[in-house]
Amino acid sequence: MAQPEIKQTFCRICEALCGLEATVEGDTLVSLRPDREHPLSKGFACVKGVQYAGIHEDPDRLNHPMKRTPRGFERISWETALSEIGERLREQLRRHGPRSMGMYLGNPTFFNYKALLFAQDFMRAVGSPNLFASHSIDCNNKLKVAELMYGLAMAHPVPDLVHTRFFLCLGSNPTVSQMSFVHAPNALGQLKEIVKRGGRVILVDPRRTETADQVGEHLFIRPGTDAYLLLAMGQVLFAEGRCDVERLKAIGNGAEELRAAVRAWTPERVEPITGIPAGELRALARDYAEANGAAIHISTGVNMGPFGSIAYWMAQALNLATGNVDRRGGLLMPKGPFDLLSLGSRSGFGKSRARTRVGGHEAVYDALPSGALAEEITQPGEDRLRSLIVCAGNPAHSIPGGRLREALKQLDTLVCIDIYRNATAEHAHYLLPATDMLERSDIPLGMILSQVTPYAQFSERVVAPKHERREEWEIFSELLLACGIRPKQGNLCSALPQVNRFLKYLPGKLRVEPDHLLELALRVLGDVSLSRLRAQPRGAFLPPTQPGSFLGKRVFTPDGRVDLAPRALVQDLTRLAGEEARFRRHAAQGDSGPRDVLELFLVGRRERRSHNSWMLNNSRLRQPPTNVCLLSPEDAAQAGIRDRDLVAIRSEGREIVLPVELSDAVGRGVIVVPHGWGHAQSGMSVASHLGGANVNDVIPGGTANLEPVSGQAIMTGHVVQVRRARPATAPANDSGSRGPPAALPGAGPSPRVNRSAPVEPEGHPR
Ligand SMILES: Nc1nc2c(c(=O)[nH]1)N[C@H]1C(S)=C(S)[C@@H](COP(=O)(O)OP(=O)(O)OC[C@H]3O[C@@H](n4cnc5c(=O)[nH]c(N)nc54)[C@H](O)[C@@H]3O)O[C@H]1N2
Ligand SMILES: Nc1nc2c(c(=O)[nH]1)N[C@H]1C(S)=C(S)[C@@H](COP(=O)(O)OP(=O)(O)OC[C@H]3O[C@@H](n4cnc5c(=O)[nH]c(N)nc54)[C@H](O)[C@@H]3O)O[C@H]1N2
Ligand code: SF4
Ligand SMILES: [Mo]
């Protein structure tokens, strides 16, 4: 029996990257806990990370390559899988050309440096522009606006949470999510520190969130209207001379156009749109300008709205106009262990100009909008998408509209590289089992530019891969060879296995892995070597980000100046003005007396114990039996809806039925539905025994619902029809529901949940 050994690693589920400590015996994981000695996360970790053993050991995990047969999925060898897939793809490429091949990269790919590098390299080697990624159902607005204003999609000044005195945060629930585009473990703790220092935290949200319940001040807003709020803040700041226009002119172009863009949006005009009283809005703008170090931050609640790009533009522009970018307590531009921005700029990373075949939607951060995926498959044409490789993603579940599920059936070849047989895999021809985060080494390159406190950590693999699980980079390399694609110059993906095949014949068991390339990159370009990181498994602090190191120095536009009023955004203001009447109408509707059907704005919610579509299968995490929607008691009363009733939520001819909880934390005119639920069809036995419904079934999808500047799918603030379906006590009858059966609250948990390991308590900050 191997001796127990303790290993430090870090969690790669969300952007907090919390330090974890694992006890292992040989290659068996014994336990996982928050790393109390981790200099940055200081013993904080949430239950999803601490209970990751439930994922690592899940009997539902994909452990072997599988092939669809008339009898269902059957196990095949890696050799057979690679050669069969290779043969199919080779033939397809020969007949229909590279464009007919596509790839979708899901969220966990961006927490896996090797998978990301090799997936992109694979597509370059194939020569297909058809790369899709989850960032177009998450944050494309930010990526596009950064490209327009700063010249690089990955250039995002990060709120200096450690020093700021005023944090205005729109569309984020840090207590649950740990934030996005901000690497700050224990986000709630960090926000509480701001208040403790005498600063202010203001959360703008259509719901009084778990965060707003615990820290700072909360401002209700009508969904989808944040851009109007920010424009009006800009109007106040310029009108009252609180912007340093001369400084703006020194660092960028378009200061006058920016001033003109906000001029008409007075707080009085915006009040009936956002629901925020003009006086409060004016005070907010003044307090922000007067705070000595302030940051406006927007996140997915705004990204996914109809004007995500204008909102991010305004957030950046106001931060710049008040002198808060590149200053302590405002927002800083981190550099990372090596200058990723300069490297990205030189290498052309993130600058693809590809467009979709249907509608000509442009790539953002090298990926086409996921909302176009279904049409790229179904619209006839010689170069329509005929095969798709999905890596660490669940597009059939996570992309709004539900149309993709039908489209996937039309593919000649669908290959899923995943740790589970998820909803997308139900349409796949081949499933390839990937390693999980404990089974591979990693450095969080994707998150390094979001760091409040610059830090580098490298983790070795904690245990060897179980069964036949393989790392994605190896899968991509082997697949490329199997497709008969010859290595091109600079293609890591095809070069590495070739080199390794050669090395096999030399003495000494030499083998080149991506970590060797990382070592080289850090040695040549970096502030910290891989050997130092290996010797310090809890990671190392990097030099703090310096104020004044960004503007005028590392802006990557052709002239090195910020574009303060990019044309595409100025033009999009016409669309925003056109929608004004719609929001005003909703405001005027107010209390129109009793009615059967409510028209409500649909917004989302993340839950502590789940993560997008894949954490519900972790039997160590106790889940409620279904997702539950939230509604204000006043709205509910209008349609005779009572607490725990089932309500039908309808949009565009589709309907889901879910139990409702009445809550005064929800603004009027709003219904809140958590995503990630509704797993009736998948090989995830715990999740599919739960009830619930996939909210994406009632969110309009496709290219008609893309935010025009960035191609971000519009996912929040759609109007849905809501009516009482059944009282809480009636037996469930799901006729009329296009979603999976909605379980009643209190329905029994799945059998797998019962035979789960004991549930350990959540790790808390010290
Ligand atoms: N309605 C609605 N829809 C949403 C959202 C919302 O708020 N509301 N949120 C959106 C957001 S922010 C995002 S990021 C997207 C996510 O969209 P996707 O990335 O398409 O979906 P996920 O549910 O994150 O699926 C991740 C998949 O990766 C697998 N996986 C986990 N770890 C690994 C690994 O190490 N290797 C491999 N190969 N696979 C792994 C999981 O099993 C799962 O199948 O969903 C979006 N969809
Ligand atoms: N536990 C858990 N943590 C997660 C995830 C998870 O699924 N579960 N997902 C991870 C991922 S992929 C991401 S991208 C991050 C996202 O992290 P965040 O961006 O913080 O996302 P949410 O926690 O969903 O918070 C979004 C908030 O926006 C609000 N909102 C909705 N519409 C609007 C609007 O129009 N205006 C405004 N102002 N607010 C609005 C919602 O009510 C919600 O409170 O979280 C990550 N962390
Ligand atoms: S907050 Fe939870 S899921 Fe996110 S990195 Fe930390 S432990 Fe992992
Ligand atoms: Mo996300």
Automatic annotation (TrEMBL):
<feature type="compositionally biased region" description="Low complexity">
    <location>
        <begin position="735"/>
        <end position="752"/>
    </location>
</feature>
<dbReference type="GO" id="GO:0043546">
    <property type="term" value="F:molybdopterin cofactor binding"/>
</dbReference>
<keyword id="KW-0479">Metal-binding</keyword>
<feature type="domain" description="4Fe-4S Mo/W bis-MGD-type">
    <location>
        <begin position="4"/>
        <end position="60"/>
    </location>
</feature>
<dbReference type="InterPro" id="IPR006963">
    <property type="entry name" value="Mopterin_OxRdtase_4Fe-4S_dom"/>
</dbReference>
<dbReference type="Pfam" id="PF04879">
    <property type="entry name" value="Molybdop_Fe4S4"/>
</dbReference>
<dbReference type="GO" id="GO:0046872">
    <property type="term" value="F:metal ion binding"/>
</dbReference>
<dbReference type="Pfam" id="PF00384">
    <property type="entry name" value="Molybdopterin"/>
</dbReference>
<protein>
    <submittedName>
        <fullName>Formate dehydrogenase</fullName>
    </submittedName>
</protein>
<keyword id="KW-0411">Iron-sulfur</keyword>
<dbReference type="InterPro" id="IPR009010">
    <property type="entry name" value="Asp_de-COase-like_dom_sf"/>
</dbReference>
<dbReference type="InterPro" id="IPR050612">
    <property type="entry name" value="Prok_Mopterin_Oxidored"/>
</dbReference>
<keyword id="KW-0408">Iron</keyword>
<dbReference type="InterPro" id="IPR006656">
    <property type="entry name" value="Mopterin_OxRdtase"/>
</dbReference>
<dbReference type="GO" id="GO:0051536">
    <property type="term" value="F:iron-sulfur cluster binding"/>
</dbReference>
<feature type="region of interest" description="Disordered">
    <location>
        <begin position="726"/>
        <end position="766"/>
    </location>
</feature>
<dbReference type="GO" id="GO:0016491">
    <property type="term" value="F:oxidoreductase activity"/>
</dbReference>
<dbReference type="InterPro" id="IPR006657">
    <property type="entry name" value="MoPterin_dinucl-bd_dom"/>
</dbReference>
<comment type="similarity">
    <text>Belongs to the prokaryotic molybdopterin-containing oxidoreductase family.</text>
</comment>
<dbReference type="Pfam" id="PF01568">
    <property type="entry name" value="Molydop_binding"/>
</dbReference>
